[in-house]
User: Which sequence fits this backbone?
């Protein structure tokens, strides 16, 4: 029986992909590198270290990750101001989890600074969850299963008792490698690209009871 739900953040609770991508493009442009939207696709869901570092590697471009990430977050904070909103069904789905007595964890590859800004932007906080894991809490990012293994552990659950809600290919792989069930939301990738998920839905407002009954 399902006992816990582990939520990814970007593409699950809110859609901030456009903003962090545009912030990264602007950051690289300031450093003299012109990047394209498609350059970032392979690194969605893997955390900002890989999101930025992976693109730099593609261009064999040397840059300081710490300062580059800091500048990206500065630009990102400006871009999202007043523009974030929860994706359809988020509050309702979380309420349903509470009513069923399920534990909830937020497990995002994003750094804490981005996590806090995003949650604030959609009216949630760390206290909205029973456990919170961000990208600074783990060494190996998605598609490594570490983040979901840690989230389940903090909840006091075995991974096999957990449902992961994901939107990214890297995230679905991480969930399956962790030994959890996975609900894939097609907010960022197609159904075919997320075909390894156990269930698929357009967003959290389109999910059925089957994701709770297994």
Assistant:
């Amino acid at each position: 029986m399902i006992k816990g739900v582990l939520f990814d953040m970007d593409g699950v609770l809110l859609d901030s992909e456009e903003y962090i991508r545009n912030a990264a493009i602007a950051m690289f442009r300031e450093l003299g590198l012109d990047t394209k939207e498609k350059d970032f696709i392979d690194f969605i869901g893997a955390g900002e270290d890989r999101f930025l570092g992976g693109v730099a590697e593609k261009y064999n471009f040397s840059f300081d990750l710490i300062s580059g990430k800091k500048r990206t977050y500065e630009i990102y904070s400006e871009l999202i101001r007043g523009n974030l909103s929860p994706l359809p069904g988020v509050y309702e789905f979380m309420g349903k989890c509470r009513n069923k007595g399920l534990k909830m964890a937020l497990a995002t590859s994003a750094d804490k600074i981005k996590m806090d800004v995003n949650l604030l932007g959609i009216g949630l906080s760390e206290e909205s969850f029973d456990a919170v894991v961000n990208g600074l809490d783990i060494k190996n990012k998605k598609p490594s299963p570490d983040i979901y293994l840690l989230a389940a552990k903090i909840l006091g659950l075995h991974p096999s008792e957990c449902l992961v809600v994901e939107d990214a290919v890297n995230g679905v792989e991480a969930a399956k490698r962790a030994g959890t069930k996975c609900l894939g939301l097609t907010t960022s990738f197609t159904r075919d690209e997320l075909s390894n998920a156990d269930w698929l839905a357009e967003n959290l407002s389109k999910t059925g009871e089957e994701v709770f009954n297994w």
Summary: The domain at 17-80 is CATH 1.10.150 (DNA polymerase; domain 1). The CA atoms of residues 140 and 146 lie 6 Å apart. The mean pLDDT is 93.
